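[stage:ingest] chain + small molecule (MTE)
[stage:ingest] validated
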Amino acid sequence: MTRLRPALSGILAAIAGIAAGHLVAGFLDPAASPVLAVGSTVIDLTPTPLKEWAIATFGTNDKAVLQGSVLIVTLALAAVAGLVSRRRLAIGVGFLVLLTGLAGAAALLRPAARPVDAVPAVVAMAVGVATLVWLARLTRTASGDAARRTARAAGATSGRRGFLAGALGVTALSILAAAGGQLRSGAQAVKKVVLARPTDPAAPLPTGLESTVPGVSPLRTPTASFYRVDTNLTVPKVDVDSWTLEVDGMVERPFTLTFAELAALPLIERDITMTCVSNEVGGGYIGAARWLGVRLADLLDHAGVTGSPDQVLSTAVDGFTISTPLAVVRDGRDAMVAIGMNGTQLTDVHGFPARLITPGLYGFVGATKWLTKLTLTTYAAEQAYWTRRKWATDAPIKTSARIDTPAPLSTITAGRTAIGGVAWAQHRGVGTVEVKIDDGPWQQTRLGPDVGIDYWRQWYLPWDATPGLHRLSVRATDRAGRLQSSDRATPFPDGSSGIQEVVVTVA
Ligand SMILES: Nc1nc2c(c(=O)[nH]1)N[C@H]1C(S)=C(S)[C@@H](COP(=O)(O)O)O[C@H]1N2
Ligand SMILES: [Mo]
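[stage:predict] done
[stage:export] tokens:
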């Protein structure tokens, strides 16, 4: 009991501070909430192998695991602060000040931080310290009473009651504050914008195989199920009215556009399949969508590239950066600053109001979300986020194929069925897709509609499934006749490779 109460006081003080900071951050800048600010800093400081392990182990839950870990470590340290304050309140208080000070520093050291980003941590500090001092008093008064009255048992009981009431009060207020902050940041929605029709539209999308082969990924990925990958713990909600796109660096005429100015430029519409470099063989970090935007080459021509830059360094509103090889964006492909996805404006999650899309390259070298600046520079002069973390600078998407149906380790009924899925070889185009059943020969599959070399291709193979356990493999060849690599490679540093194998039971 003597230890439990002080430790609990420290934990409650931290919870109260964190909750109050979260509430205030909901009004100022959700990303500056103490736990999120520390979490973001941890993400940036995590060595690449550990990050890879986390993504491989926790998948899209990696962020929840990270925030949970930050919270647990913080509460453990706060418990220590509470224990220390039993003897020396000033030292316990100092410890809390240090913890919240670190959170403040984390918020201020974010690339695009503003001075107000320190406010949530300062509030957390004040509320945390006040709570600790108050709970310490409650505890002390109780034991003091006990000594004076000599009725120790009775005193301890009333002290315990007082502390319990205080603890419950702190917990309830903290829950309210945290929920308030959460509601407030969740309620922030991006503005609706009206987009013009493309001057260079895409052809209507053909009917996909999903209508005839159940289980095959739809030809176009609905935005709501499109994968999401970024370093952000909170989704930036960009104010489109004050947003600008700046083009600078090694150019003759640097310029800045408002969203209205950008959206008034000639717009192209293209079907492009995006893939994340962290996608494992057979994985889901891939999506195919219709993008609307301004050709990147047009913007670069307008600025007039000068000198010999070799990269386009793009910067997001939160300071995150991506390097795209200049030679790639100028080789005629439809790299664009996209403002529309699947017929409407970009959603906040996918980069509203504007993002980069570079056909053929993994997202980390060509798909900057919440884009705000394009700088013509050299790899020698400036390095982007992932480049500094030793990922590849030139990262074309590797040819690969995935079995969507039957699902891995599933049980299906014997008889006529189909093996089906998608294959991709962006900017080279899928030539053929072959499937192997057990140790049989590689068999040609039938391909779905052709939506161009930057888009994935659906495929299927009719199969008369016989009872038993079966091993299915798939491989793709691009249009130049190059077979996908069968060497097993993990994502770091330039994308996974290998043949997907699926085991199914036929009953
Ligand atoms: N601002 C910003 N843009 C970003 C990232 C990021 O972390 N921050 N991640 C990139 C990566 S690794 C990929 S794969 C794509 C994913 O885009 P999506 O979430 O719209 O699918 O965004 C890219 N653009
Ligand atoms: Mo990615």
